[in-house]
Design goal:
By secondary structure, this protein is of the alpha+beta class. It has a domain of 116 residues: Peroxisomal Thiolase, Chain A, domain 1 (3-Layer(aba) Sandwich), CATH 3.40.47.10. It has twelve helices and twelve strands. Strand 11 and strand 12 form a beta hairpin. The longest helix has 20 residues. Belongs to the thiolase-like superfamily. Thiolase family.
Length: 398
């Protein structure tokens, strides 16, 4: 049987909103990681059967198929196709799943999966066209039938342009799992601490391709890490989603810019073309849950992935659960009874940032590096996504 292996993984540093990557067009950011991927693996871009690129806000600079434009911007042969997909925050993780499926099925031999989001240049929500005038929901997403289905459900604002609100979902999660403000703040502080320790130790350096941003200047380090934050400072932040809530900007992922790319092929093709397999894509699933609370998807997705893999949670050496909001990984821990010491060991999106369409590939790149550094056989990645969905991926170190 054909398998699917990852033979290369690279990412940009993650920039804060209006930070170090603000001057870089998202197509150029994407092209940068494509070139770095080819240089670091030794793959011939002419051999790439497809580039599958995740991006959430596909409008403005990220419109007109940013995946194909990235190929052209990278200087790769015009014969290399590219496409762009949106599974919300999990877009580039889904890109990896599609790439693996294409390789395993024999439809392709070498596929590049990844994604980008420049949330500085294309702000979240830019793709929503709010009507200048008129009644009803003309011009808005979701439509009347979706709004009617969930009207009256707590957390669903039927008359808002976007009735599903992730921040409200995070508050509902905290309430359901009994998570306190102190627990969320402590988790957020720990994320910054782990990310700072990893950065100071140079653990991120092998996975990052520094980005030229000016003459002779390269942006080379994640800049969202807050080394000076404290529990006292976090406790001072407002709770914007509920007046009496527990979720703050400090316990939420940062708005960010970044891109990442992964090369996927079969073991046989890699051997014949001199590429080094890093890990096998063992299991790849997608699941869905309540779209109003929205963020619980990683729990059923993890259960589905473990069931299909024939593995127990105790056999997984590292878990990357995207820190969209602190209640997400904390509720996941409570439901899975996983070892908290194996969770997001180098920090997560609260500290490193969450460039939507690029986050899935960024997280996989970081997890693979951690697995290789520590000889970990199995790793699991999962992300909550808009609409109540979640991808889960189990990879096996080779």
């Amino acid at each position: 049987m054909r398998d699917a292996v990852i033979v290369g993984a690279v990412r940009t540093p993650v920039g804060r909103r209006r930070g170090g990557l603000a001057s870089v067009h998202p197509v150029d950011l994407s092209a940068h990681v494509l070139r770095a991927l080819a240089e670091r693996t030794g793959l011939d871009p002419a051999d790439v059967d497809d580039v599958i690129w995740g991006c959430v806000s596909q409008v403005g600079e990220q419109a007109w198929n940013v995946g194909r434009n990235a190929v052209l911007g990278a200087g790769w042969p015009e014969t290399v196709p590219g496409t762009t997909l949106d599974r919300q925050c999990g877009s580039s993780q889904q890109a990896l799943h599609f790439a693996a499926a294409a390789v395993v099925s024999g439809q392709a031999d070498l596929v590049v999966a990844g994604g980008v989001e420049s949330m500085t240049r294309v702000p979240m929500g830019s793709s929503i066209q709010v009507p200048a005038s008129g009644d009803g929901t003309d011009g808005l997403p979701y439509g009347d039938q979706v709004r009617a289905r969930y009207r009256g459900v707590e957390g669903f604002a039927a008359d808002e342009p976007v009735p599903f609100n992730q921040g409200v979902g995070a508050e509902l999660m905290a309430e359901r799992w009994g998570l306190s403000r102190a627990q969320l703040d402590e988790f957020a502080l720990a994320s910054h601490g782990k990310a700072a320790a990893a950065q100071d130790s140079g653990l991120f350096d092998p996975e990052i391709a520094p980005v030229p941003v000016a003459d002779g200047v390269k942006f080379g380090a994640d800049e969202g890490i807050r080394r000076d934050t404290t529990l006292a400072r976090l406790a001072e932040l407002a709770t914007p989603f509920r007046a009496d809530g527990v979720v703050t900007a400090g316990s939420a992922s940062q708005i960010s810019d970044g891109a990442a790319a992964l090369a996927v092929t079969s073991s046989d093709w890699a051997r014949r073309h001199g590429l080094l397999p890093l890990a096998r894509i063992h299991t790849a699933v997608v699941a869905a849950d309540d779209p109003v609370i929205m963020l619980t998807g990683p729990i059923p997705a993890t259960a589905k992935a473990l069931r299909r893999a024939g593995l127990g949670i105790e056999e997984i050496g590292v878990y990357e659960v995207n820190e969209a909001f602190a209640p997400v990984p904390l509720a996941w821990l409570a439901e899975t009874e996983a070892d908290p010491d194996r969770l997001n060991p180098r920090g997560g999106a609260i500290a490193l940032g969450h460039p939507l369409g690029g986050s899935g590939a960024r997280i996989m790149t970081t997890m693979l590096q951690h697995m290789r550094d520590n000889g970990i056989r199995y790793g699991l990645q999962t992300m909550c996504e808009g609409g109540g969905m979640a991808n889960a991926t189990i990879v096996e170190l080779l």
